[in-house]
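[stage:ingest] chain + small molecule (flavin-adenine dinucleotide)
[stage:ingest] validated
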Amino acid sequence: MYTHIDTEIIDALKAIVGERGVVTDPDTMQPYSHDEFALAEIAHMPEVVVKPADVEQVAEILKLASQKSIPVTPRGGATGLCGGCVPSLGGISLSLERMTRVVEIDTANQMAVVEAGVSLSDFYTAVEEAGLYFPPHPGDEGAMIGGLIATNAGGARAVKYGVIRNYIRGLEVVLPTGEIIRPGGKLMKSSTGYNLVNLIIGAEGTLGVVTQAVIQLMPKPAVTRSLIIPYDDLQSAIDTVPDIIQAKIQPLAVEFLPREVVTITEKMLNQSWPCSVGTTYLLIILDAPSEAEMDKLSEAVAGVCLDHEALDVFVADSPQKQEQVLGIRSKIYEAIKDHNIETLDIVVPRAEIARHVARIQEVQGEHGLWLPTYGHAADGNVHTHIMSARLEGGEIVPLPEEEWKPRLEKVRAELYRDCRERGGMISGEHGIGLVKKPYLSYVLSPEEIALMRRIKQAFDPQGIMNPDKIF
Ligand SMILES: Cc1cc2nc3c(=O)[nH]c(=O)nc-3n(C[C@H](O)[C@H](O)[C@H](O)COP(=O)(O)OP(=O)(O)OC[C@H]3O[C@@H](n4cnc5c(N)ncnc54)[C@H](O)[C@@H]3O)c2cc1C
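[stage:predict] done
[stage:export] C-alpha cells:
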C-alpha cells in the first residue's frame, strides 16, 4: 500500500529542503530509529530523514508524500517513552530540528510564538529573559515544542497549573495533504467552531505536523519553596495528599518517591538528599506571592503531613537547597534507566492512587520483578518502572532475559486492569504511541475508538501521517 523511497523521491525531497536537509546514510539515520523507549525490538529505521527549515517546506514534503503514498513520522527531541516517533513503517522521518526560531515573546499579551523545533530548555531561557514564566515542566528539557504539544505533556507542576494543553492558544499545522492551517491565535478564549487546536494537541502527530505554536505565559511566582517529608510507609504518605487538597491548599507539585530510588540516585550523583529517615518521601513544591504567605502555607502543609504520621518536615528554602533536591529528583530516571524495560504512565482519579500503588506492590511480590514507582501524587499520575532486575539489599541485581521477559506482559496487563477498574487511563501524559496500542481498548469503548478513526480518516485520507500509532 505504501511506496518505498527511491532515487526519484530522494531527488524530489532534495529539491524541497536542499542537500543538507536529506539524510540517507544508515549510520546517521540510526538515531532516528528509536526514542527513549528501552526495548530495541520496537526500533525501526526510516528510509530517509528529512529536515525542513520552514512551514512551506513541510507543506511541500507532505504534498509529495500524499501523492506518492509515503508514510511520514514527525520527530521532535525523541524523548518520548512509547515509540511515538519511531518510523515503524519506514518512509520519511520528518525531523523538526532545524525549525528552532523563537519568533516572538509578546509581553503585552503574555504570549510566545515559537517554531516546533525549539527545545524546552531554550524555551525556558527565552521566557525567563523576557521576565515571564511558563509553568509546565515535563522532565526532559531536550523535548521540543512540537513533541510536547503532540503528546500533551504534563510534568510535576501540573497539579496547580495544568498541562501543555492549558497553555496552547494557537497553532500552525500542516495537514497530511499539504494544506497549512492556523487555528486559534493570541486569544484567551474562543467559541468559534470546533476547537481544532485541542484536537491536534495530544494527537501524537497522526493528524498533521505542528510547525509553530502560540503559547500562553504568566508572571513568575514571587517565592517558591520545596518541602521534603519523610514517612515510614508509603500508604501514610499517599493518604496525606487528598487531605492537603481538601485543606484548600494548591501545591505547585506533589511527588512521591521511595527511599530506594533516592539512595541509588544520591550514589550516582555523589550528592545527598536532605534527610535520611523514612522509607518514602513526599516532595511538595509550593509557590506564593510573598515570604509571609509562604510561611503560612508551609505551616499548613506541615500540619496536615504531621497529622498523617510524617516523621519530620524538611524545608529547602534557598535556591541552592532547592536546586539540589530537584536535581536529585530529576536524575532518578537516569539512575535506574539501564535496567528499566518500560515506564508506565497510568493515571487514576487521585483518591484512588493509594489503592493503585498498593496493587503495584502486590504485583511486584507476585511476579518477582522490581517495580519502582514514583510520580505525581496529587494528579493521580503514577510512573511504574518495569525493571529487568530485582532489588536486593539496596543493590540492583540484573535478571537474565528469560526470567524477566515472560513476566513483562503479565505485569503490564495486571496493572492496566487495575487502572481500568479504578476508572483510570493508560496514559496520563506520555501518549499511546506504538507500545500502548494493544491496550487502548482496555480503557476506551469501541464507539470512542471508531469515532477517533473517523476523525483520523477526515484529516488523513491516505493514512500517511504517523501511521501505525495509537490505534
Ligand atoms: C527523563 C524523562 C523524563 C520525562 N518526563 C516527562 C514528564 O514529566 N512529563 C511528560 O509529559 N513527559 C515526560 N517525558 C516524556 C517526553 O519527554 C514527552 O513525551 C515529550 O513531550 C516528548 O517530546 P519530544 O519532542 O521528545 O517528542 P518525540 O519523542 O520526538 O515525539 C513524540 C510524539 O510527538 C510527535 N511529534 C513530534 N514533533 C511533532 C510535530 N512537530 N508535529 C506533530 N507531531 C510531532 C511524534 O511523532 C511522536 O508521536 C519524559 C521523558 C524522559 C526521557
